[in-house]
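=== Given protein ===
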Amino acid sequence: GINAEYGGIETAWIGLYDTHYGDDNPNTTWTCVDSTPYKFSNFEKGASDSASTLDTSVVAVNEVGEWETHRPDEKMSLICEKGRAEVSSETEDKESMRESFFSH
């Protein structure tokens, strides 16, 4: 899980959010920040993933790989992904990637 791979991180935002958390629509519409189509989910058992509320408006992955819902004002780490065209010829090791993503 992310805890072992990134040294103690328990949850990390995966770029998924509810577009309706701030309006009157009671239904959740999960959207990826990069506009990638939302086709897969791995919500933990009992997670509130269909009712649009402030408390359940962003999605983070927990240390065992399940998705949890959180408030958007919670501070947490994030997981970024680079597309193939953006990857340089020099490969960063896991330690430098961990520092750049999680030290801020």
Remarks:
- The two ends are 21 Å apart (CA to CA).
- Helices lie at 2-5, 94-102.
- Residues 94-102 form the longest helix (9 residues).
